[in-house]
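W.,

You were right to be curious about this one. When I first looked at the sequence I had no strong expectations either way, so I just let the prediction run and decided to look at it fresh. Below is the sequence, 245 residues in total, followed by the output.
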Amino acid sequence: MAEERVAKLEQEVTDMATTVAMTQNALPQSIQVLLKTTPKEAVKAELTARTNAHNAKKGELQQADRTLEEARNELRILLERAENDKKRVDAINQLTRVRDMLAKDGLILKYTQYVFNSMESLIQRRLEKMEADFTIKVDPEIPVHFLFMRLDEDSDWLPQKKLSGGQAVRLSLALLLAVQRRIMPDLGFLVLDEPSMHLDDEGVESLKAILIGLQAELSNSEAQLIVCDHKKDLETAYAKTIHLV
């Protein structure tokens, strides 16, 4: 590891600096002893040798200092890279959490399902006002789906895809009105674009009855229901009709 290498070099430099200092401090005393007991030429040669050895040690110490500084710089670079890598990993983890939340089965679906569940009673009350012949409950298996059961005959809970045309119209309108009540309660109008599309004659009659009932319900309020449809049979359900050609 880079940290261990730097620590080892620091210890080596400290030991070498101590040795050089001790050598430098002891050198004058050694010279005095030699001058008393050794010929002058021999003392000169010994002094030169010891000076050269001392300078060599100083050179090694300087080189060790340079090596230590290089190791410290390398360690600093590695630590900076590790910090940058950590930031990248943190950013990737955050983006991964965002991706998971925005996934098809993530937070958006969970919130949508929560709102959907909270509207069940509103939808049921609206169906009762429409005199629907069925009741509904949230499907626990399929997200954002209903199960329904007929009230005019013995029936099990069935998937919403088995609703008749008229029943589907009632449930769709009940759901739209519940959404408006739950999410946009201050919005004073609701627009239905071609609600009779894909309905047979029975479904169109059911739609007309629903629109007549809604018109009576909204007559004493400022709320408006705007319907855009091509079926002339629905005109008797409107308070006001505008023909576009």
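Here's what jumped out at me. The longest strand covers residues 134-138. And, maybe more interesting for your project: The first helix runs from residue 2 to 37.

Coffee later to discuss?

I.
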